Structures are given as structure tokens and as C-alpha cells.
Amino acid sequence: MLTTPAAPIAFGGSPIDRADHVRGDPDAIAALMGPSARLLKLDGLDPVMTAEGGLVWGSLADAEGDAELVFLGLEGERGCFAQVLPGIPAAGAPSWNAMNTLEPGELAAYGGARALVGWHSRHRFCAVCGAATVLAKGGWQRSCTGCGAEHFPRVDPVTIMTVEHDGKLLLGRQPRFPAHRYSALAGFVEPGETIEEAVAREVFEEAGVRVRDVEYVASQPWPFPSSLMIGCHAFADDPAIVIDETELEDVRWFTREECVDALEAVAVGEMGRAFGAPPKHAVAHVLLKWWVERGA
């Protein structure tokens, strides 16, 4: 039977100490900008990687003159930084090569840096008055040069959920998915909603299925550009499906045996007989394994 891996969920488990106590102390940050400081090398928002598949770190001497330096945290006694350059993309496609190559701690360190650098690139001007903003608190704030408003890095909560009925699991596919692949339904939490309400609304909007007994399973930071995937599971009493074709191409119920087959297939880079499971670095993959193992 399949077992859930002990390794952290992709993009979780960073070895870098976020060191909140340092962020608000300019002198402490300046003291960390010495010869031992490390600078994460990025190509836009993608990681620069070694031939062996690891992150490339340099020194602050490698930073460009017009860059803003973001304090990522501490690795032991050394400060870790990333640079925010004018003109870098505000967002971009997921870095599939990094997800497939980097070991878990490095992937998490990169994911945090990507989300933070991307946020800075999207918030160079104040949303209140339109004036330019400048980096503050080591990069964990931007302050407006006009009205003085303070802006902080944001995370967008997204519910992603499996739904169960009579021993089967509800999964859907978007047109952009690889052929044959299905995944858990998902959607952003809207203002004024609980997680449970967001799960129920999204499932009904996308598949026409009413759910109950929502439970939390696991979460995943997803830095494309800056989401927190909140993995949940729910139950349905009526299996009838009404697909929102503006969101999804197809929605189906799959048996436990079909899910086991799909998970075993994706582990060796193949598609299952009934469908292709989400890749291992997606929290949807964790949700499927959790459901399969719970029913073992």
C-alpha cells in the first residue's frame, strides 16, 4: 500500500531562520551584510542552478548596483539575501525544473525568496496615493514616500479539496492540464468567507455538488506568485455533477482502486489507466495519498 512520504510538502520546511527579531533593526541587518553573507542567484524569478541541481549562492559583492536587497533570514550566523532588480517579471510560470530537481530544503528556500522578490516587483508604487515605495524592515515591508502608508507581503489563501461519495473521489481537469490528468478542485478564498464556506462554494460553483463535513488535511506555500494552498476533504450526499465549463473541462468520480493505480503510475512518471494523478510536488497529490491511506 502507498505510504505518505516523511519529507515535507514541496516548498515547505525551509532551513533558513526567518529571524523576525532582526528585520526591524537596520544596524543588525547591516552587520549581517559582511563577507560571509550569501546572495541567492535568480534569473528573473527562476533559480540559477548548479550542474548537480542545487541552488547557486554568491556574495553580496555580486549584487547589481541598482538592486534592493531583501533579507531572507539567517543560516546559522550568516545572513541570506536576494536582490530585487528593476524590470524583473512580477509573476511567471511555475519553475518545474526546480521542483523536480532541488532537494526539499533548497526548494523551500527558493520558494520563499521567489514569493518575496515577486511581491516587491509588484508593489513599487503605493496603492493608496500612487507614490513610489521603498524597501523597509529588511524587505518585509514597503513604505510609501508620499503618504507614508505601510505595505506588507501578502499571501493569497486558496482552498484545494477532494470530495468523497460512496467510496469514490471527485476530481476535475482544466483545459491547460496535460492530457488525461485530473486533480483536486481549487479556488481562492473570498472576502468574508471561512475556509469551510470557500470549500463548499467552490465545489458547488465548479461541479454543482453540495458538500458537508469539511476537514483540514494539509497546507502548502505555492509561490506562483504567492498563495497558500489549504488542503481539505469533504463529503457529498448527491453525486450528480453539473460542470462549470468556464472553469473546468471535465469532472468525474474515481474509485479508490483507480486512485491507487494513478498514484503508483505517477511515481514512475506514467499516467494511470483511469487518469493521471497530480505530480508529487503538488498538495493535490498529498490529498489523494491521504485519502487512499485513510481507507486502507
TrEMBL record:
<keyword id="KW-0460">Magnesium</keyword>
<dbReference type="GO" id="GO:0005829">
    <property type="term" value="C:cytosol"/>
</dbReference>
<dbReference type="InterPro" id="IPR020084">
    <property type="entry name" value="NUDIX_hydrolase_CS"/>
</dbReference>
<dbReference type="InterPro" id="IPR000086">
    <property type="entry name" value="NUDIX_hydrolase_dom"/>
</dbReference>
<dbReference type="GO" id="GO:0035529">
    <property type="term" value="F:NADH pyrophosphatase activity"/>
</dbReference>
<dbReference type="InterPro" id="IPR049734">
    <property type="entry name" value="NudC-like_C"/>
</dbReference>
<keyword id="KW-0479">Metal-binding</keyword>
<dbReference type="Pfam" id="PF09297">
    <property type="entry name" value="Zn_ribbon_NUD"/>
</dbReference>
<keyword id="KW-0378">Hydrolase</keyword>
<dbReference type="GO" id="GO:0019677">
    <property type="term" value="P:NAD+ catabolic process"/>
</dbReference>
<keyword id="KW-0520">NAD</keyword>
<dbReference type="GO" id="GO:0046872">
    <property type="term" value="F:metal ion binding"/>
</dbReference>
<dbReference type="InterPro" id="IPR050241">
    <property type="entry name" value="NAD-cap_RNA_hydrolase_NudC"/>
</dbReference>
<dbReference type="GO" id="GO:0006742">
    <property type="term" value="P:NADP+ catabolic process"/>
</dbReference>
<protein>
    <recommendedName>
        <fullName>NAD(+) diphosphatase</fullName>
        <ecNumber>3.6.1.22</ecNumber>
    </recommendedName>
</protein>
<dbReference type="InterPro" id="IPR020476">
    <property type="entry name" value="Nudix_hydrolase"/>
</dbReference>
<comment type="similarity">
    <text>Belongs to the Nudix hydrolase family. NudC subfamily.</text>
</comment>
<feature type="domain" description="Nudix hydrolase">
    <location>
        <begin position="153"/>
        <end position="279"/>
    </location>
</feature>
<dbReference type="InterPro" id="IPR015376">
    <property type="entry name" value="Znr_NADH_PPase"/>
</dbReference>
<dbReference type="InterPro" id="IPR015797">
    <property type="entry name" value="NUDIX_hydrolase-like_dom_sf"/>
</dbReference>
<dbReference type="Pfam" id="PF00293">
    <property type="entry name" value="NUDIX"/>
</dbReference>
